[in-house]
Amino acid sequence: MMNFEFKNPTKILFGKGQIDNLPKEIPANARILMLYGGGSIKQNGIYEQVLFALKGYTVFEFGGIPANPEYNILMKALEIIRNEKIDFLLAVGGGSVIDGTKFLSAAALYKGINPWDILAKAIRTETGMPFGTVLTLPATGSEMNSGAVITRKEIKEKLAMGGPGLFPQFSILDPQVVKSIPKRQLANGIADAFTHVMEQYMTYPTGALLQDRFAESIMKTLIEIAPVIIADPSDYNAASSFMWCCTMALNGLIQKGVPTDWAVHAMGHELTAMYGIDHARTLAVIAPSHYRYNFEAKKEKLAQYAVRVWDRKEEDTDALATAAITETEYFFHSLDIKTRLRDYTRDYKGTAEKIAQKFTDRGWLGLGEYKTLAPADVMKIVAMSY
Ligand code: NZQ
Ligand code: ZN
Fold first, then answer.
1. What angle do CA 203, 272, 114 make, to 5 degrees?
2. Whose CA is nearest to atom 38 of ligand 1?
3. Contact predicate 239/179, CB 8 Å
4. In whole angstroms, what is the distance from residue 22 CA to residue 40 CA?
């Protein structure tokens, strides 16, 4: 096991009715900016619930943060924060709203001139404006981690940011929100969380027995609840396990002491930036090719996953590892998620070259757990996924 430090300061309030506890977590004199997305919270009752809990506070609102939170829209919220002397941000939404709020938390206290530099120059945020979240869509884990991904459409960029100042102070996880989520987003959430675990597991063995079993248990639970939650999102027990799996998949715990990959996400973000494909679906496109291309480096863990997660019985490592990739593809298909780029765009020719060029321009010359995947490798992996 590798050395590690672990600190996660986010307080979780999990379960039915926890939205009512918002006033316990926000200072009484706070000037709050409540941030949300395209309006789902106004249809499912969450908006009223939150406003009811916040009566007595000074609350400003900013709605309209789109999926893949857009820099230029967030800059309008930054003006409100400055003009209205906001001192607490409350994200009510999925990963996009929470990530947008993290950007604002960083930008509000940023000393530089241009907040885009936080993303373009990968400036870590040591201290951000305090914020909390009410999660409405289990998927990203953003509710209990300190990372965010922001899009800037005009230049087709989708870049990550983060730092210890960007953990939510608290996150409210009420699984009852799951019942209003459309099938497409439920499938996305399952696939995203599943891939988060794979990114932190499908590397090479380091004798980290507990971390491996944490990871395997999250994957097994997601496989178990997937058909249940897709058939009936109002199943509270399944919704609870789904929600907690997504949080645990990316709150830092399972990656401690082990190597991590994250190349699937790096390539996937480019597909969203270029074609607007849902985040989770880009991962389903890239992951199978990534594991096939890096078969030799990853086959020990692929084989362990085949045995422990998919109950495969093949005798040799290569056969198990091959089966592992096929099982993963079938799992995505079982969620009605397609795993080829051509299923999402007719325009796919040249994608591999463009992504490789972007990585070269950014100086991303070595991805993956060994930091050896060069743009030339990225080009081959993306091309394999056409
Ligand atoms: O905008 P509204 O109207 O709220 O609708 C949203 C949106 O259209 C809808 N939705 C959310 N909760 C709902 C609901 N509809 C009905 N009932 C509810 N309870 O779902 C749609 C998608 O929402 P979004 O927040 O975009 O989805 P998700 O949570 O999958 O977030 C995706 C974003 O997070 C980033 C992705 O790159 C992408 O930009 N990620 C963030 C990570 C992090 N911060 O740690 C890690 C991830 O790997 C990922 O990169
Ligand atoms: Zn993801």
1. 100
2. 68
3. yes
4. 20
CA–CA dist 230, 225 (Å, integer): 8
Query: Using a 6 Å cutoff on CB, does residue 148 contact ligand 1?
Result: yes
User: Which ligand sits nearest to residue 279's alpha carbon?
Assistant: 1
Q: 36: CA distance to ligand 1 center in Å? A: 11
Ligand 1 atom having least distance to the Cα of 195: 48
**Position in ligand 1 atom list of the atom nearest CA 67:** 26
> β-strand 11-14 against 170-173: which pairing, if any?
parallel
The closest of 97, 68, 40, 65 to 279, measured between CA atoms, is 68
15 CB less than 6 Å from ligand 1?
no
The amino acid occupying position 128 is G
- Contact 39 CB / ligand 1 (< 6 Å): yes
**63-102 pLDDT, tens digit each:** 999 999 999 999 999 999 999 999 999 999 999 999 999 9
Element (DSSP H or E) covering residue 126: none
Ligand nearest to the CA of 141: 1
In ligand 1, the atom with minimum distance to the C-alpha of 189 is 30
Distance CA 219, CA 248 (A): 11
* Sign of the C-alpha dihedral computed for residues 85, 90, 92 and 97 taken in this order: positive
pTM: 0.98
Q: What is the pLDDT of residues 265-317, one digit of tens each?
A: 999 999 999 999 999 999 999 999 999 999 999 999 999 999 999 999 999 99
